[in-house]
Design a protein that fits this description.
Elements: E1 2-8, E2 13-20, E3 26-34, H1 40-53, E4 65-68, E5 79-81, H2 87-94, H3 103-116, E6 122-125, H4 136-139, H5 145-150, H6 159-172, H7 176-183, H8 185-188, E7 205-210, E8 216-221, E9 224-228, H9 251-258, H10 263-272, H11 275-280, H12 286-294, H13 298-322, E10 327-331, H14 332-337, H15 339-346, H16 358-363, E11 369-370, E12 379-382, H17 387-400
Parallel strand pairs: 1-4, 4-6, 7-10, 10-12
Antiparallel strand pairs: 1-2, 2-3, 5-6, 7-8, 8-9, 11-12
Length: 401
């Protein structure tokens, strides 16, 4: 079975083609993408032509399903058919203001795939799906009931990444029963797990740090998310590459009055000129910020310090909520490739059970491995992100179900 995973941006189209054998094992056979996309229909045609020219498919019919890493839908989450269930596009469009960089491209892209590949199953895996089982107290904001009923709550994002970490860390820790629970999670639905439900043995406590251009920290018990740093939108939580992250709501009316800014301009600056870019004044790429910091740039040094402080803040929150942890995991571009950032996050945490091995940490970049010291009560891992594989697997499971 060939599963095409489509990653749609406002002006980009990236794809990966996975081939599943009869035993359900997946192999990545092709990947590619296009920038400055103005017509998703043409991008789909180009993708299929490229796959044909490279010998991966003979015709469009050889693509057995397309999976999408959709972000946020109003009153809708989980893993759902997007070709036959009109609710998917409706839910995306009703929350377009909350995820303006993600929802419109996915709604348009799904429509274009329907036209270009009629009869081919389309499956949407919402990023919020991994957080369906969070306790209500972890999802609520202290706002009027009407706000909550309108959809103002903590949803959580990077669900595919944190789900992969939940499954893979359970395997590395020898907890096959937890890994199996994660694999079947979306098939069961939110009513299938009691809040805080554990398994027969000691609960497995994992804190997953997805650190990249967009970052979040999630606490996981027995493969199920119990809380996360991101909230109503992907603009919240840790400082993002050019998005503000957490901010006191009083800041918005204050800068509107003090600086004479319109609401639209405040929103633009919070989502385009803030985060690591706004702090450093150098750029939104951590490699550039680190280089400037090493040359003595004070703003760049501050940007790194704020980022690390925010990660440690959420790490501390989930250490308390979980009652400790059995594993701390770093994933995504920054988490996988920056030993100095990992070291700063783990500094002076030995009394909390997290002891980093400096040599292992320095040597590990971009590959899976353990970086905790011998005798550390909690294990520390680097697990490369594989969100597309999660989407492909869930697409197969959705069709099988």
């Amino acid at each position: 079975m060939n599963i095409l995973v489509a990653n749609l941006g406002s002006t980009s189209f990236k794809f990966r083609l996975f081939r599943f054998d009869s035993a359900g094992e997946a192999v990545l056979v092709a990947k590619g993408g296009y920038e400055r996309v103005t017509d998703y229909g043409q991008a789909i045609d180009d993708c299929l032509a490229e796959l044909k020219s490279r010998g991966h498919v003979r015709a469009a019919a050889d693509v057995h399903a397309v999976g999408f890493k959709t972000v946020l839908g109003k009153n809708l989450t989980g893993c759902l058919r997007a070709d036959t269930d009109e609710r998917v596009i409706v839910a995306l469009e009703e929350f377009r203001e909350i995820a303006p960089a993600h929802n419109p491209p996915y709604a348009l892209g799904i429509r274009r795939f329907r036209e270009k590949l009629p009869g081919v199953p389309l499956v949407a895996l919402f990023e919020t799906a991994f957080y369906q089982w969070m306790p209500e107290a972890a999802t609520r904001y202290a706002v009027p009931a009407a706000w909550h009923e309108a959809g103002v709550r903590r949803y959580g994002f990077h669900g595919a990444s944190h789900k992969f970490v939940a499954e893979r860390s359970a395997e590395l820790l020898g907890r096959a029963e937890v890994a199996e629970r994660v694999r079947t999670l979306y098939r069961a639905g939110p009513a299938s797990l009691a809040v805080g439900a554990g398994l027969a043995v000691k609960p497995l406590r994992v804190i997953s740090c997805h650190l990249g251009g967009s970052s979040s920290v999630t606490g996981i018990r027995d493969g199920v998310a119990i809380g996360t740093s991101m909230g109503l939108s992907p603009q919240s939580g840790l400082p993002q590459n050019n998005r503000v992250g957490d901010l006191d709501s009083a800041a918005v009316p204050f800068v509107m009055k003090t600086l004479g800014l319109s609401l639209a301009e405040v929103e633009r600056q919070m989502t385009k000129e803030s985060g690591l870019l706004g702090l450093s004044g150098v750029g939104n790429d951590l490699r550039d910020i680190r280089a400037a910091a090493e040359q003595g740039n004070g703003r760049a040094q501050l940007a790194l310090a704020v980022f690390v402080h925010s990660v440690r803040h959420w790490l501390g929150a989930f250490l308390l909520e979980l009652g400790g942890c059995d594993a701390l995991v770093f994933t995504a571009g920054i988490g996988e490739n920056n030993p100095d950032v990992r070291a700063a996050i783990c500094a002076d945490l030995a009394d909390l059970g997290l002891l980093l091995d400096a040599d292992k940490n320095s040597a590990l970049r971009g590959t899976e491995g353990e970086i905790s010291a011998v005798g550390s009560p909690a294990r520390i891992f680097v697990i490369p992100a594989n969100e597309e594989l999660v989407v492909a697997r869930e697409t197969v499971r959705c069709l099988a179900a």
